[in-house]
Specification:
By secondary structure, this protein is mainly alpha-helical. Helices cover about 80% and strands about 0% of the residues.
């Protein structure tokens, strides 16, 4: 069994293996002095599951290194947000330390916008991998259409998952995980951000293909 797992691992391109290992290291670092330990399993569990199945999945459905890099960057952004359960990512503190001004005051915002950034990245970064998967069965342009629709479906399913979590979980846990921050239109704005990201990715891919 171990030899089979090693053989499977070695079939994955070296650059992709490095991404998997660096993502695993990032999750480890994100959980050092974890400020929200009760929510860490819920936040990081899905990413760890993806890491475990990644060698098998990439052997069964190979992706280009560019596509894997997009998934890797998205999961890194998620891992960073997951450490502070998104609503408390201290990017304003980081900005003040680097440029002397916080980002929120520059843009006139009052809520923590990191979750919106990751929803945008969901569309911008995962369009290419989804298109490559679909390309095995349909034409390139139709695969882009599929990817755009899949981003919308994925966003909607995630928002439904958050709603179901609110129904079944304890109130404080659900509120922290959802990260609505008092915005009643949070779900709609998150889905819109993902579709904007997907639109930009589609334009870039179409221009690249000429």
């Amino acid at each position: 069994m171990i030899s089979g797992a090693v053989a499977m691992w070695t079939t994955v391109p070296q650059a992709q293996r490095r991404m998997i290992l660096s993502l695993l290291a990032a999750i480890g670092l994100a959980n050092v002095a974890q400020p929200f330990p009760d929510l860490a399993p819920l936040q990081h569990g899905p990413t760890l599951a993806l890491i475990l199945i990644a060698p098998w999945a990439l052997r069964r459905w190979p992706l280009s290194t560019s596509a894997v890099g997009c998934v890797w960057l998205f999961l890194l952004l998620h891992t960073l947000g997951a450490r502070w359960i998104y609503s408390y990512v201290p990017y304003d503190d980081w900005a003040r330390a680097v440029i002397g001004h916080d980002i929120s005051s520059l843009f006139g915002t009052t809520r923590n916008g990191y979750d919106r950034l990751v929803h945008f990245a969901f569309g911008a970064l995962l369009t290419l991998p989804m298109a490559e998967i679909a390309r095995r069965s349909i034409s390139w342009r139709w695969s882009l259409t599929f990817a755009f629709a899949a981003i919308g479906l994925g966003s909607a399913l995630y928002e439904i998952f958050e709603w179901l979590l609110t129904v079944v979980a304890a109130g404080e846990t659900a509120d922290y995980y959802n990260g609505q921050q008092g915005d009643v239109w949070d779900a709609q704005k998150d889905m819109a951000a993902a579709q904007v990201g997907a639109t930009i990715a589609l334009i870039a891919l179409l221009r690249r293909r000429g």
